[in-house]
Structure formats: structure tokens, C-alpha cells
Amino acid sequence: MTEETRRYYRLQPREVTEPRADMEIDGREIDLTVVNISPGGILCYVSKDETGVEKGGFIDKLTVRMPEKKPVTYSGQIVRTQTTPDSPAKFCAIEFVQFGEKVLEKGSKPIKSVPPSDDTDRYYLHRLESIKFPSEAHTIHAEIRINQMLYDAFSDIALRLAIEERWFFYEVLDSMKAQQPDYPDQLKMEFFRLCRAEDRSEFVKRKGSGNRFAGWLQGVFRRKN
After folding, report:
1. What pLDDT does 225 receive?
2. Paired strand residues for 197
């Protein structure tokens, strides 16, 4: 699958802010080394010695921990594994299939071609570049405050996104700021699409969830009648 036809841009971990991830299979917790990640899934390394990590396997719980952010937890399906003779680890591609009460429903949100808007995109880029960080931020606490400045400046856009895309938007912001002004083209396009709040999430709420109280109330009235 080419980058152009993928639903999401895949973020590559940076050495300073590398995400950590682990998954649970049959009650066992397994550490993962992240290769790249998106709201749709994760490509990672896992030890060859781990049993049960095979194509088609279901992952009860997969937790991604971004530096200084709340962890995000999915259930997932292993869609590909690949071993190499000279490595103690193997590649593992995992598709996220559940997020809280939402489940993956492929095809529910076809990819739409959103025409670029020079004025709008230029505004978002100017908004990003107008945030000036103090140069003396050498402590972890100073870095956290600086990152919060960035997130606060784009909070209105983040709140328009589906919650399972929001964490990814913050990671895109971090990557954009870290590489300013030499933005990779695909990263910049992902930044613009998220700023426009283009809804691409195929995670939909399970049927019946969220309506339990309404159903219970209707049952009470029926019993009274």
C-alpha cells in the first residue's frame, strides 16, 4: 500500500520522544519496540521468543504511552509478522480494532479528497510558526510547559477531532514543531488535514451502547402501562 492511499500518515518515533508500547496476550504482558504508528495501527518489533504472536492473533489490550501524555489503549488484530534469520526480533504489524466502546468498521468513512486551500493552510502554518518557545528550556518541566503551550494554541482544533485521532494530532504537532521549518511533505499534509478536522476515523460506537438508560426507562413505562 502506498503512502498516498493509506488512510493515515505513519509517524516515525524520534529518539527524544520515542513512544513506548506493550500488549497483553493470554494474560501475558509483552513489550514492543515501535517502528511507526498511526490511529489505525502500529508496526513494531517483538522478541522471536514470544509465543502466540502470529498472524490472525487477537490482542486483548495494546497500550501506547507517549511522553508526557495520557496512555491510549486499543484492542488489536495481528495482520502480519515477519522474521529475519540474523535478528532476535521479528516485525509485527497490528491493526487497531477497538477503542473503548468504539469498534472498527471498515468502509464506514471512505477516504475523501479534500482540495487544498492555500489561504486556510497558510493560516494554520502561520499559527504554528507564531508560537515562540523560550530557548532556555533545558529541564523536563520546562519542556512540558512548552508542549502545553503548543497544545493549548490548537485546543479548538483538537476538540473537533474524534478522540481516537486527537492523540495523533498532538504527536503531529510535536513533529511539525521539532522539524520547523523543514517539514516533510507528507507530515505537512497530515497536519493540514487534521487542522481542517477531516473525519477519517472508522471507529464507530457499538450498536446499543449509550442507549441503556433510555431502554431501561422505556421498559419502566411499559411495565407501568
Report:
1. 39
2. none
